[in-house]
Write a structure and sequence with these properties.
The chain is an all-alpha fold. The protein is 61% helix and 2% strand. The protein starts with a helix and ends in a 15-residue tail after the last helix.
């Protein structure tokens, strides 16, 4: 279920577009007493009638109660109708890709959730006893989806105002889980057992690019950072891991990313805390 914030922002954007179009053309058609006249009597229209005339001209309704004055005003009416067609087209071409981008963001979150609901679960589910099977292929697919989501946020900033109350389709907790799993795979799993390093590095760069797109504009990292994932579940599942000291040495290098992820979670309406699976704040 999506919150109303994103829908409200989209409606507000379209309302502002429409209002600016109508006000602009109203100013044009109030510039002269003879700009708009009653069709039957030829009497100059009052303000309310001009608002009515501008409305049905811009929205191409084709009513004939009032007509423009001759010459320049006839041309202005044609232009206002043309801009109305442009307005309708822009509105449709804005709404459709935004809706598609929201669906793709939910798809990305659902994809990550299908691999596991915590960073450790993503890793242990993929462990076959001797390797990580097809996990590298999933990482490559996720890299493309994360980069695509980044570009969509750049193109349609309104996407940041869409939130999901369902954890399995929410972008922030999914990205936190994926980043934590990547941290375990890169720094916690023993060197010889890790998936393809190229796939790990590409996904790491993609997540960094995604967070940098949101950083400073939509989210600001604070003092709180997500706790680093632990190796206990991996060891219980039989996944070869590095020793505790080696893993701890890699933790400070990820602090800034974990701070950004914590800010992303808060902004998306999720608790950060220390629980392995963030919960919605309300």
């Amino acid at each position: 279920m999506l919150s109303f914030a994103g829908v409200a922002v989209v409606v507000s954007v379209l309302a502002v577009w429409i209002a600016l179009f109508l006000v602009g053309w109203l100013l044009v058609f109030t510039a002269s007493a003879g700009a708009v006249r009653a069709t039957q009597t030829g009497v100059p229209a009052d303000l309310v009638a001009r608002i009515y005339f501008v409305g049905y001209s811009v929205f191409t309704l084709g009513n004939g109660d009032y007509s423009p004055g001759r010459g320049t005003w006839q041309i202005a009416t044609v232009v206002s109708t043309a801009t109305g067609l442009v307005l309708v087209t822009l509105s449709i071409t804005y709404l459709v890709p935004v809706a598609s981008a929201v669906a793709q963001s939910r798809q990305l979150a659902s994809y990550i959730a299908s691999l596991g609901s915590t960073p450790a679960e993503i890793v242990t589910r993929s462990w076959t006893g001797s390797g990580f099977g097809s996990l590298s292929q999933h990482l490559v697919s996720l890299t493309a989806l994360v980069l695509g989501s980044r570009q969509q946020h750049l193109t349609y900033p309104v996407l940041h105002y869409f939130h999901s109350r369902d954890r399995e389709s929410a972008a922030a907790p999914a990205m936190a889980d994926l980043s934590g799993a990547l941290h375990l795979l890169r720094h916690g799993v023993a060197t010889g057992a890790r998936p393809d390093p190229a796939a790990l590095q590409a996904l790491d760069a993609a997540i960094g690019s995604f967070l940098s797109t949101l950083s400073g504009t939509y989210i600001r990292s604070g003092d709180e950072a997500l706790p680093p994932p632990a190796l206990d579940d991996l060891r219980r599942a039989g996944v070869p891991t590095v020793d505790h000291d080696t893993f701890e040495q890699a933790t400070p290098g990820t602090r800034e990313r974990r701070r950004l992820l914590a800010a992303f979670l808060r902004n998306d309406g999720w608790c950060t805390g220390t629980a392995p699976s963030p919960s919605p704040t309300g």
